[in-house]
Specification:
By secondary structure, the protein is an alpha+beta fold. About 25% of the residues lie in helices and about 35% in strands. It has a single domain, classed as Hotdog Thioesterase (Thiol Ester Dehydrase, Chain A, Roll). It is built from three helices and eight strands, in the order E-H-H-E-E-E-E-E-E-E-H. A hairpin with a 4-residue loop joins strand 7 and strand 8. The chain starts with a strand and ends in a 10-residue tail after the last helix.
Length: about 140
């Protein structure tokens, strides 16, 4: 996978308020769908990790900055970058734009989690290696 990972989403009627402006909770739902796609392209589709392997990647920290409004029918471009890989976490940077104009950005920390014990776990070795390979300069942090 190349960095940044890039995908697009159309703002649907249900993503917007009565004025046609994107509603921020919908942004977060769309972001979650982009994350699901990212993990699938990386080789770990959630339907396998959740149901078969019994681990997940819940969000443990999220910050967002909204730069300009988006509107019903617009196509948003999502760029996802891996900023940091820890023993059981990964920090992602999201840049969201429309026609090359920034709309919002987010920094998100996901944690590897045992879905039966409800606690963090170290990344499986192959997942850790795949995430580390996406760092701008090879390296990990705790």
């Amino acid at each position: 996978m190349q960095m940044p990972y890039v995908t697009t989403r159309i703002l649907r009627f249900g993503d917007c308020d009565i004025s046609g402006t994107a509603y921020f909770p919908s942004y977060l739902n769309i972001l979650n769908n982009v994350n699901e796609e990212f993990w699938e392209v990386l080789g770990w589709p959630w339907h396998d990790t959740i149901w078969k392997e019994r681990w997940g990647t819940p969000t443990v920290h999220l910050s967002c900055d909204f730069s300009a409004p988006s509107f019903f029918g617009e196509e948003l471009t999502f760029e996802v970058r891996v900023l940091r890989v820890g023993r059981s976490s990964v920090t992602l940077a999201h840049e969201i734009s429309c026609n090359s104009k920034k709309r919002w950005s987010s920094t998100q920390v996901l944690a590897a989690s045992d879905l039966d014990k409800h606690c963090s776990i170290p990344w499986p070795a192959d997942v850790h290696a795949a995430l580390t390979a996406l760092l701008p300069a090879a390296g990990t942090a705790d």
